[in-house]
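This section describes the prediction task in plain terms. A model, or a person checking by hand, is given the sequence of a single protein chain and must write out its three-dimensional structure as a string of tokens. No templates, partner chains or ligands are provided. The sample shown here is typical of the held-out split.
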Amino acid sequence: MRQDKNLLSTSDAIARYFNEATLPSQQETLGHIVVEILRSGRTLSRKTLCTKLICRLEQANDTEEALHYQQLIGLMFTANRES
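The expected answer:
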């Protein structure tokens, strides 16, 4: 019986871990998108990045994910001002 409790608590801990998974960093997300664009043979530009980000924003599963993509889109338009 005790072994069953340990198995349940272990599986509960694993389930909690995956349920609490966070979104990738902004750099990771942009890196994945850049790789997708380049592998598809398209030219890498601000326009293609924004297009991919908007598509992902439209397919976002929750508000946290949508906010993540909105922030990345915002970066595409503020990058020139800082240079």
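For orientation: Helices lie at 2-19, 26-39, 46-58, 63-82.
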